[in-house]
């Protein structure tokens, strides 16, 4: 069985330091052991978006580094990967390569950016401060699939709809997923109008039309597919992680009242497709290797069917990634108050692993393409205050949350900003940060 | 209210004849009043796929026609549209233009291809016989949405699952839709392996894994979006048809046993994403203008909510398009027998119109992009033998269909080819044919 992503190498050495000093700060999200990819340009400029790597509070401009000859001394795999990364305004060409190529480029970047690098002088000229950058969605997303991998979320939501039968019979067998809307995925900083649509109150005879009254966020991780598979050629578990380029944050905003009225029998549609917000940086599976952990599946649950099983991944198929949701209301912003935490959870509590999602998605022959995107589904933990949505935190909209400034929230109000953050942490290891995915609700359009 | 697609013009003149003689045959699918677009190349060649227009049994090679100067005498709108159509291996750039531009190009093509055209000699050299061509999916499909617009299909399917409550309460209010998988959409001629997956028989305790046992087709029309809308800016009914480039055929192959086990609570997923087959030619709304008809909504059904209503479209928002499904089994192929008809229906029986689908899809602010694709959903008519799937024709898999050669079918067998055809017909008007969408089931991959 080939599990290259489990392999540790010199890029994981905890003693590595960067000549970009901000990367060495204890609380840096982007130490030299991270090296996530994104696409960026200088804020407000007309520059083309291009590939960059986060290092401390800076971005290494990859095309500029390539033009400066930074990769010319490396082997062909590295030069090919660098060339692919620098060819346009998205990372699809880099994603189309193999884990070996991704690993070669990561090793080169680690060597170029570490203290003592002979390339410090020319590369220092290729840095752009993150504070002066703006970002775009880092890949052309061909298809977006959203999963449902938190059994705690599925159970809590199920209880609201079916108190006597919260978890559907297929949940522990099938990694439930559905196709999502790719066109409305935008990068952190997205501001979107409160959606308008049809809803029907449970006690109403007829539906009505108007702005959503139960607007929610969903805390998810996003998974960017690399490589891909031909139509009709499934990806077995042993190769599944080879098809994963990396992870980011995803807020799958949801209009709960629209969802309740529209979702039978074919699933959520307009309740989700008005906006989805992702973080700019893609953290590679290789960077996350030291933060792997085993499945949390209870012993008396059914074991996965053989096509979804792999002994090695039982021990290491999950990831220990801390997940945080914060809110900043308009009133907080006006008062200059910092965002307030709504929940803190961890990705290790998901029921299905990344590899299982890839294998399940392709088992019928469905083809994945480089740049395709998965959502994990709302990541709620076992404790009520680890829930990844307001619908859960408010007990189905019945128990308002009390914010520190005296405001209350059942669902989102106009002007609310929701911020998702994630970080992989382990004692003795550097923090591998994901940055953040922030989005703000604007008032609904006028229906006059 | 602007409804340019209702306007008739000289391209609809029934007396027009083409110098391409095969276009004038009474049973031609592609008379000069049709002029559908596709992308093609010579079969088996390494040529780039490029835009073409079907005329009789020929294809006008658009880049070749442009290179021959055919469009140079036309106005700027026409030249711009021709330039967009000729710029690559997909029609997205042409689709990104406006109905006025599409109309200008159609007028030019009508004039160039009609009898007496001064361009006959140079354009005759730009024809490729359809018999010598192969086709590709004519657009890069950003997002694919499948709807559920046949109330007859929804009712029949609903009866199988809920005999006492066949039609869900939202059906007559909400044009139900869900996101589909774009990556596995392929062009007519697609051959695909029978999908493999998890299923659970109703009386079984546990799910099993293996080849699909209830493989089905779904007769649909496909809708290619042109123009588009910005995120947050809905398309009202009065502009909805301006966002539609044209229609084709779609077979949304379905694994019914996989679907039954996986679809709650988020809808169909792997039961659909293994393959979808479309026809090569996109028939424009302008070509279909003379075949419009009124809604068939019963008088005692609820009227559409105002955002989905438009008086003009009540009279003309539907299309009179005959829809046919044929099967050719392996035994028929070996015996040299022609395909056998399974059903004959009509698109006019759909409950929701194309314009309503566009407006509903965008009412929440969701953005559509040129090249996006909608499926109509399975188009079953009011009579049982007008059903658009085997699941319906076989009464839920209980009543086998008897084929003329003595074979029986409940669901699809390996080697079966399903052929969808469509034609808009009216007394005194030429037939506007859609060509066909054919696909063949191959045996499942080995699970040894």
Can I get a quick summary?
The structure is a homodimer of 448-residue chains. The first copy, chain A, is an alpha+beta fold and 448 residues long. Chain A contains 13 helices and 26 strands.
How would you describe this protein?
The structure is a homodimer of 448-residue chains. Chain A is built from 13 helices and 26 strands. The first copy, chain A, has 448 residues and is α+β, with helices and mostly antiparallel strands. In chain A, helix 2 (76-85) crosses helix 4. The longest helix of chain A is centred in the N-terminal third of the chain and has 15 residues, at 99-113. The first copy, chain A, has two domains: 4-135, SH3 type barrels (Roll); 144-442, Fumarylacetoacetase-like, C-terminal domain (Fumarylacetoacetate hydrolase, domain 2), CATH 3.90.850. In chain A, the strands form seven sheets. In chain A, strands 6, 7, 8, 13, 14, 16, 17 and 22 form an eight-stranded mixed beta sheet that branches. Chain A has a five-stranded antiparallel beta sheet with strand order 4-3-2-1-5. Helix content of chain A is 20%, strand content 26%. Chain A is globular, with a radius of gyration of 22 Å. Chains A and B meet through strand 6, strand 7, strand 10 and helix 8 of A and strand 6, strand 7, strand 10 and helix 8 of B.
Task: Note the main attributes of this structure.
fumarylacetoacetase (chains A, B), EC 3.7.1.2 (chains A, B), disordered N terminus, phenylalanine catabolism (chains A, B), five-stranded antiparallel β-sheet, 26 strands, SH3 type barrels, eight-stranded mixed β-sheet, 448 residues
């Amino acid at each position: 069985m080939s599990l290259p992503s489990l392999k540790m190498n010199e890029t994981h050495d905890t003693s590595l330091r960067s000549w970009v000093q901000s990367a060495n700060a204890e609380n840096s999200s982007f130490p030299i052991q991270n090296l996530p990819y994104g696409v960026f340009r200088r804020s407000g400029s007309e520059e083309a978006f291009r590939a960059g790597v986060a290092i401390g509070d800076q971005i290494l401009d990859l095309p500029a580094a390539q033009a400066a000859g930074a990769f010319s001394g490396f082997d062909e795999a590295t030069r090919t990967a660098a060339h692919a990364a620098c060819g346009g305004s998205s990372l699809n060409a880099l994603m189309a390569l193999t884990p070996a190529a991704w690993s070669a480029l990561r090793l080169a970047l680690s060597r170029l950016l570490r203290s003592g690098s002979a390339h410090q002088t020319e590369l220092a000229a290729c840095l752009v401060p993150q504070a002066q950058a703006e970002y775009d969605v880092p890949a052309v997303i061909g298809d977006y699939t959203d999963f449902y991998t938190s059994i705690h979320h599925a159970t809590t939501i199920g209880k609201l709809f079916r108190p006597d039968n919260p978890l559907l019979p297929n949940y522990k067998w099938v990694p439930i997923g559905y196709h999502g809307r790719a066109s409305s995925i935008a990068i952190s900083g997205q501001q979107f109008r409160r959606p308008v649509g049809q809803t029907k109150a449970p006690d109403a005879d007829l539906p009505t039309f108007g702005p959503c009254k139960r607007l929610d966020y969903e805390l998810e991780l996003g998974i960017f597919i690399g490589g891909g598979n031909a139509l009709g050629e499934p990806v077995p578990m042993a190769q599944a992680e080879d098809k994963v380029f990396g992870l980011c944050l995803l807020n799958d905003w949801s209009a709960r009242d629209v969802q309740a009225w529209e979702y039978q029998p074919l699933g959520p549609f307009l309740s989700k497709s008005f906006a989805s917000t992702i973080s700019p940086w893609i953290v590679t599976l290789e960077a996350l290797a030291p933060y792997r952990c085993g499945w949390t599946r209870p012993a008396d649950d059914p074991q996965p069917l053989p096509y979804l099983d792999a002994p090695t991944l039982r021990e290491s198929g999950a990831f220990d990634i801390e997940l945080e949701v914060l809110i900043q209301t308009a009133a907080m912003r006006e008062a200059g108050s910092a965002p307030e935490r709504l929940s803190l959870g961890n990705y290790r509590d998901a029921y299905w692993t990344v590899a299982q999602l890839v294998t399940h998605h392709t088992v019928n022959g469905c083809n994945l393409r480089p740049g395709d995107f998965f959502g994990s589904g709302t990541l709620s933990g076992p404790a009520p205050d680890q829930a990844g949505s307001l619908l859960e935190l408010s007990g189905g909209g019945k128990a308002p949350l009390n914010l520190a400034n005296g405001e209350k929230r059942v669902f989102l109000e106009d002007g609310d900003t929701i911020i998702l953050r994630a970080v992989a942490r382990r004692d003795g290891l550097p923090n591998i940060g994901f940055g953040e995915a922030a989005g703000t609700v604007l008032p609904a359009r006028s229906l006059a």
